[in-house]
Write a structure and sequence with these properties.
Two copies of one chain form a homodimer. By secondary structure, chain A is α+β, with helices and mostly antiparallel strands. Chain A is about 55% helix and about 10% strand. Chain A has a single domain, classed as Glutaredoxin (3-Layer(aba) Sandwich). Chain A has a four-stranded mixed β-sheet, sandwiched between helices. Chain A is globular. Chains A and B meet through helix 3, helix 4 and helix 10 of A and helix 3, helix 4 and helix 10 of B.
């Protein structure tokens, strides 16, 4: 079985959302699976000195336009959330915790959370909202999820995941690693496809 | 005659160089020309808070790898310069000044300067080097160019060009505007091609 594609993302990243809607079809075309790795971009930004794109002069206007245009090009439903960016600790912890016992349920919850935020205007930084979405997606009792995301091991797990991501070179979202080769950005999906097909160029 | 493609770039930008090798073929396919607009990214960075990619933790390693990989994918000769980034005032002023009287000569000099830096390892921040390259490319006496780039109107012209670029939204290099639609990055060349073919999506 060839190695999965590592897919690092933050739940507040529009480009992460767009790529999450496309990466599985690319992976499965080449007999690969996707290993979703939620991280907190805020921790990465402390290293890189970056800020959320929409808050940056000049880049803010461009990026809002590019989010919409990229979504149309990829055919992915997208609505710029009113509240942006948001805290994503709870959503990240939920997916991380669910992945430990049921990867499929975690994947379903991940898509549900991303779509709720970027196409249905829901505020997934609200813990009750995030937990309810994950509970329905994963068929898990909401109280169990709510308790898990506040537990020390899960909190530590996300901190460790962030450290491991930066150790792997992750500098943004989405950040995809294919057989050791890193690709940053949803505009690299075609290159990921090509790399998988050819083994490099 | 349809409007030219505005192509904003800094001579120290690897992605600007890569795109400069491809944009004319895309433009001419659609009956367009390219209006090359040299700017100083340092001035833009003061607005956006950005820094040269290679100096940024995490992004530095990624970008050096991506420069090479992007160049191979596009089939453009590329060698990472030992001295990077460099000051590009002189090269920018040369092309700006030449454009006023002979657009074709300016275009030839632009390619010559970019290739000297990114494929032949020459230091075009050295005024004598930049002037000599432009003199040969444009068939102009070196002394004439050297005097022009130190003249107040040409210096003012570049300052004005930077201001105009930022007023047009330019937030990086290359930054291409097609019929009012902005595209940032050499990884947007396919989108520029598609936009020209379809008028948008």
């Amino acid at each position: 079985m060839p190695a999965p594609i590592d897919f690092y993302f933050d739940f507040s990243s529009p480009y992460g959302y767009l790529a999450s809607e496309k990466i599985e079809a690319i992976a499965s075309k080449h007999g690969r699976s996707v290993d979703y790795k939620p991280i907190l971009l805020g921790v990465v930004f402390k290293q890189t000195g970056a800020a959320p794109l929409t808050n940056v002069p000049l880049k803010g206007d461009y990026s809002r336009r590019d989010f919409m245009r990229s979504a149309r090009l990829l055919g992915v439903p997208f609505r710029m959330p009113d509240k942006f960016p948001i805290s994503t600790q709870v959503a990240a912890r939920i997916v991380l915790w669910m992945s430990e016992t049921n990867v499929e349920a975690a994947r379903t919850a991940m898509h549900e959370l991303y779509r709720a935020y970027f196409s249905r205007g829901m505020d997934i930084s609200d813990p009750a909202t995030a937990v309810a979405l994950a509970a329905q997606a994963g068929g898990i009792e909401a109280g169990t999820i709510a308790a898990a995301v506040e537990s020390a091991p899960v909190k530590d797990g996300l901190r460790r995941a962030n450290e491991e991501a930066m150790a792997a070179g992750v500098c943004g979202s989405p950040y995809m690693i294919v057989d050791g080769e890193p690709f940053w950005g949803s505009d690299r999906l075609d290159q990921v496809d090509r790399w998988l097909a050819t083994g490099g160029w």
